[in-house]
Design brief:
single chain, about 475 residues, alpha/beta, TIM Barrel, 13-stranded mixed β-sheet, 5-stranded antiparallel β-sheet, globular, disordered C terminus
Length: about 475
């Protein structure tokens, strides 16, 4: 789940919620926002279909002291229209834990990027949903926080929910959507697809009910195989097609459905057999180069390869710039709202270029304000060099208007050249809910991890495979 992020750098995901910062960006990559208008169909070189928006997720707890992931976001600044950092957790009693960053707020606002913080359920709890009083307390706290901070909206990522939370979750969304709509704010929700390895969790999602009470729904179409399963493709094309069809048939309007895409994979020890380890695309590239390996592909184009380390045979399946293209074409063909990328920091420059080219216009721009002081050079908010391109508008109303007119409007977009960075997700520190809070086991949203394939605890995941 929680998997950003638009091209919505959306997305993913983790044992109780995405540990990410969803970055809702225009797949035409060039429109920025705190309400800036999104690129319109026919505005770019790829005018054969609608320009997709891309949403990217970002996990602050996975950030290294040098700010490598944040530097990547800065480098791709023109692609970012909406940002959804993993900042808030709803506690069992309905209170709110705040892990927000003033640095990030200042950077986003100086760049006119709409802020859509990610909200997770602490420890995968369902308790606040099952209590009318606690549910109302949570809604009140979230609405007050959005008003106080003047956010453009919220992204909800509740995972590991009990089946009896199905109705209460819809009621929670109804109450919160009503409150945010009155303030002209947006509300989106991330859901686990039915038919996935986490099908038991997906039972808590009433697709039609949630779609009626959200501006957009992010379908987390990845982890068809994960660290607790046998080796296999992360998002096989036929599987993704079925998940989209099920979601549409269940009542989610296609123009409000965001398709989750991945830029990572898993490394499984197979001889002897062991649990898989999540590995980012940038780490995969480093491993391929170090081992001088040429990957193979299955019939639908998903890449994989084997290698040996310490006398143990490993197999790696992952998504890359080639395998993701048919999924993007599915989103375009089916008229979906955009893409949700898990996660910012895993991708490579080549992946960025491929996604931008397939989803919309790709041009280059420069002159970005650093996300945080140590990410690049220290620049005070307000002193940033503006990116040339479409005019920016402030206010969520502009975002809503751009979304509603995306099928018929016109516009232009700009995209920065991608830069490759490496960021390993950390299971501790930062925000953890059911793992995203500082005081509880960290997990990643959007995808779960348990031995049974239920929830994947980030703190239980070993480090990415070493390149030797």
């Amino acid at each position: 789940m929680r998997g950003v992020a638009v091209v919505s750098l959306f997305a993913h995901r983790r044992a109780g919620t995405h540990v990410l910062l969803a970055v809702l960006t225009s797949v035409a990559l060039g429109v920025s926002g705190c309400g800036s208008a999104l690129p319109m169909p026919g505005s770019g070189a790829n005018s054969g279909g609608p320009v997709l928006r891309v949403l990217a997720f970002y996990d602050p707890s996975a950030e290294k002291p040098t700010g490598t992931v944040q530097s990547l976001l800065v480098a791709n600044r023109p692609a970012i229209a909406e940002l959804a950092p993993l900042w808030y957790q709803v506690m069992p009693d309905g209170s709110l834990r705040d892990q927000s960053s003033n640095h990030l707020k200042a950077w986003a606002r100086s760049e006119h990027i709409a802020l859509m913080p990610l909200v997770v359920n602490h420890g995968g709890t369902s308790r606040f949903l099952l209590s009318a009083a606690a549910r109302t307390r949570a809604v009140n706290a979230l609405a007050a926080m959005v008003k106080r901070e003047n956010y453009d909206g919220l992204n909800i990522d509740f995972e590991q929910l009990k089946s009896q939370a199905r109705g209460p979750l819809v009621e929670f969304m109804r109450q919160l959507h009503t409150r945010l709509r009155a303030m002209n704010k947006l509300l989106t929700i991330d859901i686990i697809p039915s038919g996935s390895r986490r099908a038991a969790q997906s039972g808590a999602y009433n697709y039609a009910g949630l779609a009626r009470n959200a501006d957009e729904v992010v379908l987390m179409t990845y982890d068809a195989h994960d660290n607790g399963s046998a080796p296999g493709p992360i998002a096989p094309l036929s599987w993704v097609k079925r998940r989209i069809n099920v979601a549409l048939a269940a009542g989610i309007p296609r123009n409000r459905l965001v398709l989750g895409i991945a830029d990572y994979g898993y490394d499984w020890p197979v001889s002897p057999r062991g649990r898989g380890v999540e590995i980012g695309l940038n780490q995969v590239d480093a491993l391929l180069k170090a081992k001088k390996i040429t990957p193979k592909r299955n019939a639908s184009g998903e890449p994989y390869f084997t290698y040996t380390r310490g006398g143990v045979t490993h197999v790696v399946w992952y998504e890359d710039s080639r395998s993701v293209l048919p999924k993007i074409e599915l989103a375009r063909r089916d008229g979906l709202a955009g893409l949700g990328l898990w996660m910012a920091g895993f991708e490579t420059a080549h992946y960025w270029h491929a996604v931008r080219a397939a989803a919309g216009t790709a041009t280059t721009a420069a002159g970005f304000t650093p996300l945080i002081p140590h990410a690049v050079a220290k620049v005070s908010p307000g002193s940033s060099t503006r990116v040339a391109g479409p005019s920016r508008h402030t206010g969520t109303g502009a975002v809503k208007a751009a979304r509603s007119s995306a099928a018929t409007g016109s516009g232009t977009g700009a995209a920065a050249s991608g830069t490759q960075t490496s960021s390993a997700r950390s299971g501790t520190g930062g925000v953890s809910s059911s793992g995203k809070g500082v005081a509880s086991p960290a997990t990643s949203a959007g995808r779960s991890a348990s031995p049974a394939g239920g929830s994947r605890s980030a703190d239980a995941r070993p480090n990415p495979p070493a390149v030797a």
